[in-house]
Amino acid sequence: MAAKRGALIVLEGVDKAGKTTQCKMLVQALQQSGYPAEMMRFPDRSTTIGKLISAYLEKKSELEDHTVHLLFSANRWEMVPEMKRKLEQGTTLVVDRYAFSGAAFTSAKPGFSLDWCTRSDVGLPKPDVVLFLQLSPAEAASRGRYGEERYEDAAFQSAVLDRFRQLMDDSSVNWKVVDASGSVDDVHKDIALKSLDAIHAAQTQPLGEL
Ligand code: DGP
């Protein structure tokens, strides 16, 4: 019998929701429980495309909005062969942001429909679960000031949250909402339970496509 595949677990949410901390904790907990697991993050700023994105986010360069959207998408596509290889080998991937950030952030800009924004990611490996770390704009603000990068302001983040809510209406994606307002440990416990469900389900289902 073929080895059991790993699960594709994505964490999404607005800035300051705690995604990166929770991704790291989840990978560690899974490994300690004997599940092979690795973290990935998008944008992956280490590739040639990722470096263009990073300069744009740091406001060191300007790029036309459609162009940068497609670069973010290309940055996901370029990692697909590696993702598939790892999943097939049985490694669970815990991913910090994915196509949903792509659609939510670009469609929060004027003149972009959610429909157009989702198209360039059609066909990407479909997550077994998307854990949405929910945090109100007021709670996000109470976690301190936003940084200096592009998109890091309260009005834009609240538009992004609206777009995420619209994306969560898509029942073809396995969205699970996580209350991110609790303690780091409580949030972790919730995420770990939901992730184990996804890992078990993935063992009997083929990897889908967005
Ligand atoms: P992070 O490294 O997780 O802080 O993400 C960098 C920023 O880029 C963050 O503000 C969210 C935004 N972002 C992530 N993915 C995409 C995407 O695909 N498209 C756009 N427009 N923005 C994205």
TrEMBL record:
Keywords: ATP-binding, Kinase, Nucleotide biosynthesis, Nucleotide-binding, Transferase. It catalyses: dTMP + ATP = dTDP + ADP. PROSITE patterns: THYMIDYLATE_KINASE. It comes from the Eukaryota. Pathway: Pyrimidine metabolism; dTTP biosynthesis. Residues 11-191 form the Thymidylate kinase-like domain. One of its GO terms (biological process) is dUDP biosynthetic process. GO terms for cellular component: cytosol; mitochondrion; nucleus. GO terms for molecular function: ATP binding; dTMP kinase activity; nucleoside diphosphate kinase activity. InterPro entries: P-loop_NTPase, Thymidylate_kin-like_dom, Thymidylate_kin_CS, Thymidylate_kinase. Its EC number is 2.7.4.9. CDD domains: TMPK. Belongs to the thymidylate kinase family. Catalyzes the phosphorylation of thymidine monophosphate (dTMP) to thymidine diphosphate (dTDP), the immediate precursor for the DNA building block dTTP, with ATP as the preferred phosphoryl donor in the presence of Mg(2+). This is Thymidylate kinase. It comes from Hippocampus comes.
